[in-house]
Each structure stands twice: as structure tokens, then as C-alpha cells.
Specification:
Blueprint (H helix, E strand, L loop, with lengths): L1 H15 L4 H17 L3 H13 L6 H14 L2 H13 L6 H16 L2 H18 L4 H12 L9 H10 L3 H28 L11 H27 L4 H18 L8 H32 L1 H12 L3 H15 L5 H18 L4 H14 L8 H10 L3 H24 L2 H10 L7
């Protein structure tokens, strides 16, 4: 136990020294292994870390990242933004409403909050500033709407959670759709309040011909999530095969639209390979730390304590959510996911909480951490794009953050919101 406490303390010390989180976790875990096994640290660490990433399901993650990067580098952002503007641009809130709907549509292409913030966010903030929106407000709604990305399939965090928990990727993908729509709807409702306060310039209603033209341009791209979810749900493809098909489909669209040339794919592949290396290093390092946690017996103690301390599934999920929100203040979501899932899973199983319900709740709670300082990566990305300070952006994001936490509590208290689609799709009885 003492070794584990020292390892966790070392992680936070290294992170405070701005050591990358994957390296910090890996070094701390190896230090803990060394304390127990001496010179055997290297063969043991290598074996555990390799086993941590030796998963067929995990191979889906880089291919979904590749599909998202191809879409992001091509002209998808312009077509999605144009369609969203044609659909909701004339509603109260104007381009702010467009911002949210575009993020919801874009989520079905990339499933990445960072891709949304960098690619679509740059276009959205520029357009909003040109129409007279306050840069702080433009940045705030862009940051808040970007975390919808990992909820609506395809989603890299969902793939990683599914691999860790042994949960159905197809069910998880279906389960994320309604919460993602709820997040977008709640943000759009909040924008109406801002509009009533006179903070949102009104936009003219576009002609019907613009809607038809925008839809015809965006429709082939919108088919990507249908292909992914439909392939997995029907049993025609595994999640990994669906990810490969998504990448091939994205590349084909980019070439047909002439958004990218063959030469443009090399830097995309390099970028994705680099991101994949970082992602798998996090998974491998955290797997080693998880091995130390398992050997210490902490997981069993935590599971028994939690199962005895709470009286219902809802109480446990609320406790786990609070833990994830706190951890999200200091740790990147993927690293936190890989670290916490093995620790919390025994307690979740003892109280017979559905793994799909638990996964969606946990992922959303950790994604909210992208909007909270001091580590909130989305805050720093969007602050730079909007040309405002991080402190200004934090104040602007706070109302939207409360709205998103409200959605999180809603899906905890009413699990049927999450479980409805998976149970309908797989012919299971109603939840509860």
C-alpha cells in the first residue's frame, strides 16, 4: 500500500514539473515495480505494458483517429458548417446555435473534442466574430460544444473503455447518441437565454435552395456514422473493421471532393501515427500502474468499501462522477479513463450496474474535465483561437459547464436515457 501511495505522489510531482502525463505515470509505475522486484523491473514492466496494448479492439482507435483527421483536413468543416447554418442559423442565437449543431454533426465524423475545437472551432469563432459576437462568448460556446464529439459515435474514448471493461462497443456507440443529442439540445436552450439578453445578433433566414444545396454537399459525409454504427450493430463488421472502413471511406470522399491530393495523406499519416504513439504510451503506462494497484489489493478494498457504503446504483454513480470530475481537473481524460476503470469496475459489478451505463457516465464526466483548469486542454486551444485569456474563457464557459453537468446528472438518475437505444436495437427488455 505504501508503495502505491508513493507512486501516486510521484505522478503528481512529475506532472507538476510539466512531465508529459504518460511519461509521469510510466516512471512512477516503474519506480513502484523496482521497489518490489529490484532488477526484474525491466522484463516485468515490458511484459505488462505490452499486454496492456495487446488488444484487437484497441486497433480501432488509430483508424477512427485517421478517419477524423482526413475529414478535418479536407473540406468537411465548411460543408458541415454550411448545412448547420442553413438548418438553424435563423433561430434565436443565430451562429451560436449553428456552432452547437455543427459540433453535433461533426461528432459523427471525428468523435474527437480536440478535432472539433481545432478544425470546426476555428471557422466558427472567425464567423461569429465577423458577425459581431463577443470573442469570449464565441470561444465559450465553441469550447462547450466541442466535448459532444466523444459522445456521438465514432468515439476513441468509447473504444478504449470498451476494451478495458469488456463492454460491447456497438452498445456503447448506440448509448452515446441520446446523451450527445441531449448535450446539444441543452446548450441550444441556454443560447436562447443569451439571445433574450441581447447577446446574440439575429441572422436572416436562408432560402430553401440553400438548404437543399448544403444538404446535398454534406450528405455523403453524414453517411459515415451510419456506416460505422450500422456495420457494428448488424454484426457485419467488428469495431476494428468498421474503423478501417471509415478511414477508407473518408479517404475516398476526400479524393472525390478533391479536398486532398494523394500527397496530402503523408502528413496526415505522420500526425495520426504520432498521436497513436502518445495514446498507446498512455495506455501502456497506465496498464503498468494498474498492475501495481491490482497487486496491492486496493481494488478489492475499494470495491468492498463502496459497495458497503452506498445503498443504490445511483449513489455509487454519483460518487464515481464526483471522483471523475475531480480527477479531470488534473489529468487528461484518456489517462484518467485507463487508470480509473480497472479500480472502479469491481464495485460497479458488485452493485450490478450496467457496464454500458457506467461507461457513458464516466466518459462524459471525464470529458467535462477538458473544460476545467488547470489541465483543461480545450480551454487553452480555444483561448488561442478566440484570442482571449484562459481566465476570460473559464468565466464564459462556466454557465455552459453547469448545463453539461445537469445533463450528466440526468443520465445518472434516469439510466433509460442511455440504455433505450441499445436495448431496442438488440431486442432486450426495458431497462430498470
Amino acid at each position: 500500500m505504501m508503495t502505491l501511495i508513493i507512486a501516486i505522489g510521484l505522478i503528481f510531482l512529475l506532472m507538476a514539473l510539466r512531465i508529459p502525463v504518460a511519461v509521469a505515470i510510466g516512471l512512477a509505475a516503474m519506480a513502484a515495480v523496482t521497489a518490489e522486484m529490484g532488477l526484474r523491473v525491466f522484463p516485468v514492466s515490458a511484459q505488462v505494458m505490452v499486454n496492456g496494448v495487446n488488444s484487437f479492439v484497441l486497433i480501432a482507435a488509430p483508424f477512427f483517429m485517421l478517419a477524423g483527421e482526413i475529414m478535418n483536413r479536407g473540406g468537411l468543416t465548411k460543408r458541415i458548417f454550411r448545412l448547420a447554418n442553413a438548418l438553424v442559423g435563423s433561430l434565436p442565437g443565430g451562429l451560436a446555435q449553428v456552432n452547437v449543431l455543427a459540433s453535433m454533426l461533426f461528432a459523427g465524423m471525428t468523435g474527437s473534442a480536440i478535432s472539433d475545437a481545432v478544425g470546426l472551432g476555428t471557422m466558427e469563432i472567425r464567423a461569429m466574430k465577423e458577425r459581431g459576437y463577443d470573442p469570449k462568448f464565441a470561444g465559450s460556446i465553441t469550447a462547450a460544444s466541442s466535448i459532444i464529439g466523444p459522445m456521438i459515435p465514432p468515439s476513441v474514448p468509447i473504444v478504449i473503455y470498451g476494451a478495458l471493461a469488456g463492454a460491447s462497443i456497438g452498445s456503447l456507440f448506440l448509448a452515446g447518441i441520446v446523451p450527445g443529442i441531449l448535450m446539444g439540445g441543452a446548450l441550444m436552450a441556454a443560447i436562447v437565454i443569451y439571445d433574450r439578453m441581447g447577446l446574440c445578433p439575429r441572422e436572416a433566414r436562408p432560402p430553401r435552395s440553400e438548404l437543399v444545396a448544403a444538404l446535398s454537399q454534406a450528405l455523403p459525409s453524414l453517411a459515415l456514422p451510419v456506416i460505422v454504427v450500422g456495420g457494428i450493430y448488424s454484426g457485419v463488421t467488428t469495431p476494428t473493421e468498421a474503423a478501417i472502413i471509415a478511414s477508407a471511406y473518408a479517404a475516398l470522399l476526400a479524393l472525390l471532393y478533391r479536398d486532398l491530393s494523394v500527397r496530402d495523406f503523408w502528413p496526415i499519416l505522420v500526425q495520426v501515427a504520432s498521436a497513436t504513439g502518445a495514446l498507446f504510451l498512455i495506455v501502456a503506462s497506465t496498464a503498468l500502474l494498474g498492475w501495481i494497484v491490482t497487486r496491492s489489493g486496493v481494488m478489492i478494498e475499494v470495491a468492498l468499501w463502496l459497495s458497503g457504503a452506498v445503498e443504490s446504483q445511483t449513489q455509487l454513480l454519483l460518487i464515481i462522477t464526483a471522483l471523475c470530475l475531480v480527477v479531470g481537473l488534473f489529468m487528461e481524460p484518456i489517462a484518467a479513463l485507463v487508470l480509473l476503470v480497472p479500480i472502479l469496475l469491481p464495485a460497479v459489478k458488485i452493485l450490478q450496474i450496467d457496464l454500458v451505463h457506467f461507461g457513458i457516465v464516466m466518459i462524459l464526466a471525464l470529458m467535462i474535465g477538458l473544460l476545467t483548469p488547470p489541465v483543461g486542454l480545450i480551454l487553452f486551444i480555444v483561448a488561442r483561437i478566440a484570442e482571449v485569456s484562459v481566465a476570460q474563457l473559464v468565466r464564459g464557459v462556466l454557465p455552459f459547464l453547469l448545463v453539461l453537468i445537469g445533463v450528466l446528472i440526468l443520465i445518472i438518475v434516469f439510466p433509460s436515457i442511455i440504455m433505450a437505444l441499445p436495448r431496442i436495437a438488440y431486442g432486450l427488455p426495458p431497462f430498470g
